[in-house]
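Tokens as discussed.
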């Protein structure tokens, strides 16, 4: 069920975790625009300063819509580590706020001060300020990012089920059984959650009662591609390398775009452009209305989910390369290389982007230049992070 590239990344992740914990080897990460080299240390919960200036708070950093945001120092970066802990890190300084023991923690989501995430062991955790609010499970392994909608946390599991959990108590409200495994994440808006399955179907589910509003057959397994929803359209990739744009209200296809390889990521929709990465090593810029290609950038390895900070589109490949592009043209701006495989999903807060790596670090980079703001060192590989309050 796993792609060869994904399997290779997981193998590299395990090897790096073993090396970090048993040999304490020195690793380095470099940026083509940074004057310094970050040399992290293999001791858990330490901070390695970068060569860049101190990050500053801005407005509308992640969305570009000018909406005021809190000071960066009040925000937190959340990520699970291969050392069996889940970490909360100051988004501005890189200092650890707290850690909580949770083995194999995957992609988190943050809402109203509470962070939710699933684990390979089939548990869903809700934590607030480092304290356990509730834990649900075990069910099947949960690799994808949850969705939070109307007081319900929606997660998919590799047992083939999609679960709706009360966000306050963790009590199961409903369950939808698909015809395959659910190994990707969920998206939601307006009381509806969208989740893909390896049965090739995209499910639209009313979160209030768990009723299926509609199903859409993409023609190939949806294994690691998480849906995204914007302007009344749901975008989802599949193992056949197709990106489908589907009407969020009725499940009718708007258009389909074919890439050259399996899609493992989620689309980013901004300024009339849909950006999506593929196993064919390219990041594509696609016209939101027509589905026609505007540009593509070759990253040298499988490309994950990008983020937009101002006019800079930041993406990453599983070979450890993080890169910045002009969001309108796809033109190259900068590149940063870590010492391990990066997870195919970035996070952003104001002027910084955050990446988890198999070399045991969470990196914070200045989106405009790619220079290092800070690097946090844990005791094992880091999963894809999230940023929020």
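Sequence:
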């Amino acid at each position: 069920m796993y792609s060869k590239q994904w399997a290779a990344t997981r193998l590299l992740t395990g090897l790096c975790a073993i090396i970090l914990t048993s040999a304490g080897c020195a690793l380095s990460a470099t940026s083509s625009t940074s004057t310094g080299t970050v040399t992290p240390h293999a001791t858990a919960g330490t901070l390695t300063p970068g060569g860049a200036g101190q990050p500053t708070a801005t407005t509308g950093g992640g969305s570009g819509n000018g909406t005021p945001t809190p000071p960066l120092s009040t925000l937190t970066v959340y990520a699970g580590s291969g050392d069996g802990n889940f970490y909360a890190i100051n988004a501005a300084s890189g200092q650890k706020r707290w850690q909580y023991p949770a083995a194999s923690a995957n992609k988190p989501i943050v809402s109203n001060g509470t962070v939710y995430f699933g684990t390979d062991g089939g548990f869903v955790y809700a934590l607030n300020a480092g304290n356990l609010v509730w834990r649900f499970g075990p069910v099947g392994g949960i690799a994808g990012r949850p969705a939070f909608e109307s007081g319900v946390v929606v997660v998919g599991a590799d047992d083939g089920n999609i679960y709706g959990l009360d966000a306050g108590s963790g009590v199961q409200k409903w369950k939808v059984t698909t015809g395959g495994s659910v190994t990707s994440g969920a998206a939601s808006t307006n009381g509806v959650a969208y989740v893909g399955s390896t049965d090739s179907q995209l499910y639209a589910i009313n979160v209030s009662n768990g009723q299926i509003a509609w199903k859409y057959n993409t023609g190939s397994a949806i294994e690691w591609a998480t849906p995204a929803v914007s302007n009344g359209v749901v975008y989802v990739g599949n193992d056949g390398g197709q990106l489908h744009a589907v009407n969020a209200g009725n499940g009718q296809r708007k258009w389909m775009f074919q890439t050259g390889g399996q899609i493992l990521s989620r689309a980013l929709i901004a300024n009339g452009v849909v950006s999506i990465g593929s196993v064919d090593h390219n990041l594509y810029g696609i016209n939101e209305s027509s589905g026609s290609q505007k540009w593509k950038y070759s990253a040298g390895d499988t490309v994950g989910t990008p983020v937009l900070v101002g006019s800079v589109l930041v993406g990453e490949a599983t070979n450890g390369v993080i890169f910045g592009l002009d969001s309108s043209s796809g033109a190259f701006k900068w590149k940063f290389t870590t010492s391990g495989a990066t997870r195919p999903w970035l996070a952003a807060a104001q002027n910084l982007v955050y990446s988890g790596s198999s070399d045991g670090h969470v990196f914070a980079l200045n989106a405009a230049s790619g220079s290092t703001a800070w690097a946090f060192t844990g005791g094992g590989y880091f999963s894809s992070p999230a940023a929020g309050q």
